[in-house]
């Protein structure tokens, strides 16, 4: 499907109703819609889940990439619907945040390709990372990891070239005093991107503890640990 939508930045949205059922609510999703939305087991994926997590300390994933989460991700990304982004971070806070102990010192968004960010007008992971950082009282690091502009398109490469392309595709500026971060992404599929970002961070700072905060995960939930 071609989402050829021009960059529009973030659209304002009303905050007095549930984004899904449109009933009056003081939160982005009402408690019924939140309760009905699918969740993942409370544990993080283990060996054998198929995810690439070698450089990641712990992966916290809120929900499978299914309705309504997939709808909210798409509305936020492709239509700039700010309320959909707030609904995602609201779900993350309600479902996962209190289980995360200790909290990291800062949150880092997975960077978009510069051309994609220019076209979309914003990085959805960055917006959600900033919001969660503010709510958690921890620091937001928007530029700690950036993508190199000259990275070759993934579809032009074979499997090993792809891994190298990702591994070499990021620039990192990590403060020496920083010892624990969360890397935030809206959709984690194979883990290749988050793992490559983590590898780039570890190359500069080997002792860095890197948790991943994934809003959604596309792997089969039966692959989760128990
Ligand atoms: Zn609702």
TrEMBL record:
CDD domains: PRTases_typeI. Belongs to the ComF/GntX family. PANTHER family: DNA UTILIZATION PROTEIN YHGH. This is ComF family protein. It comes from Fluctibacter halophilus.
């Amino acid at each position: 499907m071609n989402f050829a939508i021009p960059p529009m930045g973030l659209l304002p949205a009303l905050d007095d109703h549930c984004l899904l059922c449109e009933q009056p609510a003081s939160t982005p999703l009402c408690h019924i819609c939140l309760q009905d939305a699918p969740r993942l087991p409370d544990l993080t994926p283990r060996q054998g889940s198929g995810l690439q997590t070698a450089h990641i300390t712990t992966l916290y994933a809120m929900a499978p990439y299914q309705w309504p989460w997939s709808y909210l991700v798409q509305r936020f990304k492709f239509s700039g619907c700010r309320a959909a982004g707030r609904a995602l971070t609201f779900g993350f806070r309600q479902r996962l945040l209190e289980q995360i102990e200790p909290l990291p010192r800062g949150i880092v968004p997975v960077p978009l390709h510069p051309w994609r960010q220019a076209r979309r007008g914003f990085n959805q992971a960055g917006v959600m990372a900033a919001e969660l950082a503010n709510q958690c009282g921890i620091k937001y690091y928007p530029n700690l990891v950036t993508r190199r502009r000259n990275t070759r398109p993934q579809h032009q490469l074979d499997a090993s070239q792809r891994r190298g392309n990702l591994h070499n595709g990021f620039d990192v500026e990590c403060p020496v005093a920083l010892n624990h971060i969360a890397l935030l992404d809206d959709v984690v599929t194979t883990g290749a991107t988050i793992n490559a970002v983590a590898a780039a961070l570890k190359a500069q700072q080997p002792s860095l503890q890197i948790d991943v905060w994934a809003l959604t995960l596309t792997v089969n939930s039966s692959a989760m640990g128990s």
